[in-house]
Amino acid sequence: xxxxxxxxxxxxxxxxxxxxxxxxxxxxxxxxxxxxxxxxxxxxxxxxxxxxxxxxxxxxxxxxxxxxxxxxxxxxxxxxxxxxxxxxxxxxxxxxxxxxxxxxxxxxxxxxxxxxxxxxxxxxxxxxxxxxxxxxxxxxxxxxxxxxxxxxxxxxxxxxxxxxxxxxxxxxxxxxxxxxxxxxxxxxxxxxxxxxxxxxxxxxxxxx
Length: 208
What we know:
Shape: elongated
Radius of gyration: 39 Å
Strand content: under 5%
Number of helices: 8
């Protein structure tokens, strides 16, 4: 009778491990051993989740919604293992794990808000509002750069090419340098010019 009651009170997967037990005492000892093993696995999993949660940070290119879902997944696993997770702890973790672009905002909230009473929803709402403001500034800056580029194109069409490639610049520089050099060599009073080749006045070394 006791053995039958044990069989009725255990999961089906565990029942197969007890089919060879002849007494209630043997079955109970086997269940105890199995549960101890399960507890070890559970505790090991909890420690792994704690390490993941502690090391978790939001990447620069990650959005708040994705970060929130990732954190919620870890918290859900904690709860499924019977662990209680304090909401204020997760809220503080959200703000501590923010990238540098959120630093000013998180510092202000930490100063003027009570994180012990703030809910997860309020924390996510604040972070998403700041994320939208940052996104708006970036888009505005990109639009300004695009407008400047369009203005340059218009000016180039109206006034000719304003920017030179490196090859064009070198070609023009060498050409102008050669002209100036020929002018200096072929013209002007060179009586005070000393040749560095023969040390005689009146000509340049290239003319020696």
